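User: Okay, second chain of the day. Same drill as before: sequence in, structure tokens out.
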Amino acid sequence: MACLICGSMAIELQLISPSHFVEVDCPACGYYGIPKQMIEQMLKQKQKLHIASTRAYLAMRAENKQSPWITPVDISIHQLFVISPFDIG
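Assistant: Same drill. Structure tokens below.
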């Protein structure tokens, strides 16, 4: 699968039990999870995560020993979506 942050080839981790989160391991962005519903919304509305901001957000969560989850609330508070086509990286 493609990384939802940078678009590089990433691994979608297979969970033993179904979950509403997709867990991704990207060589460039690291390990993170995002709700399936959020992915569907992003695809439908053609939204993308801002690479640098999202990586910084995940690094901050790791420093604070928090799970690397990206939720709709986090996207809003930390402004993780690309606002314009010129604001990708």
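The beta strands are 11-12, 21-26, 30-35.

User: Thanks, on to the next one.
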